[in-house]
Specification:
Length: 362
């Protein structure tokens, strides 16, 4: 198949890694893949590493007709192909491009990575009519979208649970030696974007409540300069410089994940499908995660992890104390998490479902 992916986010996160894994698998199977990315963005540089054509466009949203014209020139003479948008706003760009180039071979597939209600009105009625098929990465994302009764055809929609592509447990790095952590300290880990919506301020408050415990939390990832500065200042203010370790962005991240004693992902917003949770599960690491998103669909409380309410430092502190104080429980939950990942979160099953969706509209 001929496939184009659109990645308009200027930074790298779980959604971008999702597309990277999907593209890599499609290339391995012999499909022809190209990408549209935002000019000068981090994803543009990383996708170029795959050796595929990456078309750099402004990709500024609904009113960006310049990107639509540029995309139309590239799509004008294409054979039957899929243009896969991973953000609904990019569907406008593709739809306009298809109108401009008048190529009826183009099929638009959209992924819904967010937990949002579907929008209404004539503009979105038109947009939804232009999308040939779309899928949601969790049941929560699907149900939230359709609860507002948007003018979208449910028969075009599917739920295809998002999964990470991990075939085996990676070898862990020597985390304590690399970061100077004492051997008797239990190490928790967060990895992802450093952003207020990820609940990191709540995490700092919870760790502050547990100063007596032999625990350190490693934060992996990047954020804006402004928020990173605020985070560092708050760590110093709470006297947590020996408890919270900012280790920056790490690639590959899985050897770090596999070296943790537990993961902690205290997002205060509804996440449709937290892939970082699955990475801990794949590495046999138990995870503390908020119960306000799609992670409830694959994390079982007190079985493979601990589910806590969002924005609640007391509940988070209690969960941290539970895992820090009980090595046996951490091991049991980690083994359960790995078993659930292998049995319920098959990347190949997800991948084949996406290809089936492509074929259904070609």
């Amino acid at each position: 198949m001929k496939i184009f992916h659109i990645v308009s986010n200027p930074v790298w996160g779980g959604g971008e890694q999702y597309v990277f894994d999907l593209t890599s698998q499609q290339l391995q199977e012999g499909h022809s893949v190209e990408l549209f990315c935002r000019k000068g963005s981090v994803p543009t540089k990383r996708f170029q590493q795959l050796g595929v054509p990456v078309h750099a466009l402004p990709l500024r949203g609904i009113a960006d007709m310049n990107s639509a014209r540029m995309m139309a020139r590239i799509l004008a003479n294409q054979p039957p192909c899929i243009v896969h948008a991973h953000n609904f706003k990019d569907c406008f760009t593709v739809a306009f491009a298809r109108l401009l180039c008048r190529n009826r071979n183009i099929r638009i597939v959209a992924t819904r990575h967010l937990v949002r209600t579907g929008k209404r009105g004539p503009l979105y009625r038109w947009l939804y009519s232009q999308i040939d098929a779309f899928y949601f990465v969790s049941q929560l994302a699907h149900d939230r979208f359709f609860c507002s009764n948007p003018p979208a055809d449910k028969h075009k929609a599917r739920v295809i649970t998002g999964c990470v592509n991990i075939s085996g447990i990676p070898a862990p790095i020597n985390l304590r030696q690399q970061l100077g952590i004492k051997t008797d300290v239990v190490v928790g880990m967060y990895h992802g974007r450093l952003h207020p919506e990820k609940g990191l301020d709540v995490l700092l408050d919870a760790v502050h409540l547990l100063r007596e415990l032999p625990m350190a939390i490693v934060l992996l990832g990047n954020g804006s300069d402004e928020y990173t500065t605020l985070l560092k200042e708050r760590i110093q203010k709470l006297d947590l410089t020996d408890r919270i370790i900012l280790a920056g962005f790490q690639n590959p991240v899985l050897p770090f994940v596999a070296a943790a004693d537990f993961g902690v992902l205290p997002s205060i917003v509804e996440e449709s499908c937290l892939l970082a949770v699955q990475e801990y599960m794949a590495c046999s690491i138990p995870v503390i995660v908020t119960d306000n998103g799609g992670q409830r669909e694959y994390v079982n409380h007190h079985h493979s992890g601990l589910l806590i309410p969002p924005n609640d430092s007391d509940s988070l502190a209690e969960a941290l104390k539970t895992l820090v104080s009980n090595a046996t429980l951490r091991h049991t939950m980690g083994e359960n998490a790995r078993k659930d990942f292998v049995e319920k979160l098959s990347y190949i099953r997800m991948y084949n479902s996406i290809l089936d969706l492509y074929r259904s509209v070609l």
